[in-house]
Fold this protein.
Amino acid sequence: MEETSLLWLFFLISLLSCTTNQARLTVSPSSSQFFKRDFVSLSCEEDDSSAGWTLRRNTSKQQRTQCGDGWGKPAGYLCNISVLFIQDAGVYWCESREGPISNMVNLTVTDKSVILQSPVLPVMEGDDITLLCKTKTTPSNLPAAFYKDGSLIRKQPTGHMTIQHVSRSDEGLYKCDISGHGESPSSWITVTVKPSSAVPTSSSALPPDYGSFQLAFRVVLHLVVFCPYFISTLLMVSLYRCRGKAVHLNKRHLD
């Protein structure tokens, strides 16, 4: 009975030891769309610098390359891309040397005349968000039309639109259009539910992002690769029990 209780105690301690610190990828300026030759700074905000987080990306031509490996300039916890090119478009994330990954951000780089500035990170349900339709060479207060999932939402005379108290129904694919200048690329806006009001959601209602993949990836990594404490504890307990049996058998033999 005492051995069983001891094993359960070690098991719980090991599960706690397997918890890894989570980094968050941030983008400055906060946007998922950029003009060609723009500047962008990315950083891995983390709770524990000992985790060794590295910024990586996947593009149409390169897979899992890190900042400084032919792109970007590392500057402490930052990665600066001083001049963006079309080939810099892709998915960016932070990855620790133990394997866990942060949120993923899809950056779009365009040589067109219009971009949509929208939240690059998920927005909390109930918050307000502002979308800005920008041109490269003219003021950013031109009249613009805003679209969600291909349907016109409204036309704004100042080039920006605020959505108040967002909900999950506001989640979707957004773009904008400025007459005489053109249309922006599309960007997905994710809305996260507050923990107190979170309810189970069917997989069909989830956006086409990497959330489910990240969750499964982290669980597998935690259970299979990143729980050395649990494995070593089980080994020590097994050795202890084997040693106890050996001593008991030797004692009986001597008796």
